Amino acid sequence: MKNIRPFLIVLGLLIVIPIAVEATIQQQRAQIGISLTINVTPYVGFNPPPPGGQAAVSASGILASTTLNERERPNRYTAESLVFDDNKTYAKVVAANQKPVQVQAEVSPNPNGTLLYGNNCQGNPGICSSATVTQAAGTKVVYPCIYQVVVDSTQPSWTLDSGLYTDFEPQGSGSGIIPGGDVGYNGYLSTPKPTATPFIVYSDGVNWTTFAANALMKTYCVDLTITIPQTTVVGTYGSQAVYTLYF
């Protein structure tokens, strides 16, 4: 009996340990994206053009060429595609004779839809999912509490991960990118941290990082510190800050 008892004790520990480990594993419960848009204006240290309109000015435009039958109703035509030829753009116009198709869908509320959400973007009260700034190339600006991230949970323990999905890429204008690491975030409940943390970029092969680990309902202010290189081309750049909740 003395030899059997230690074996039973060890067997009991082996049974208990996997159960304890399983209890610590968290699963993804909710995920949101906050769209971030940066409108880049010219570098503030540029040399102004010489007086008298001596500066060379270049511009490009889009030429749309269409031919319509005046006897036909204009609302029967839609622009379907663009064809580029000799630096000119022509809109291809076709008749739109499609009939409406009835679609039925049953929509049910997402039980986790209110677990995690953005709020108070740029000081505008209410649930939101985007923030926009306008900033000159060659500058570094801090935007205090530009949006909030709310975890509305009754869980005694949860983890919130974050990161940018991509670098800041051109959105219709501009060229190149603004590296995600040139934008830092500072997430806090009441008092900002001493320094901002550069965003990681998920599409660059980096895993999400921990934004916060807490419990119950919490509302975090997010400061953004944006550094725009002097060489950045004027234009609009965008990315998405993604937040994922686990418990």
The largest pleated sheet is described as: 6 strands, mixed
Number of helices: 1
The value of Rg in angstroms is 27 Å
Helix content: under 10%
Listing every helix as H and every strand as E from the N terminus to the C terminus, the arrangement reads: HEEEEEEEEEEEEEE
Give the class from helix and strand content and strand pairing. mainly beta
Low-confidence stretches: 4-23, 53-68, 70-95
Strand content: 35-45%
Q: How would you describe the shape? A: globular
Separation of the first and last Cα atoms: 44 Å
Mean pLDDT equals: 77
Give the assembly state of these chains: single chain
Number of strands: 14
Write structural notes for this entry:
The protein has one helix and 14 strands; from the N terminus they run H-E-E-E-E-E-E-E-E-E-E-E-E-E-E. The protein has one helix spanning 4-24; strands at residues 28-41, 77-85, 88-95, 116-119, 127-128, 130-136, 140-151, 158-164, 169-173, 183-188, 197-198, 209-214, 218-227, 235-246. Strands 1, 6, 8, 9, 12 and 14 form a six-stranded mixed beta sheet that branches. A hairpin with a 7-residue loop joins strand 4 (116-119) and strand 5 (127-128). The radius of gyration is 27 Å and the shape is globular. Residues 4-23, 53-68 and 70-95 have low confidence and may be disordered.
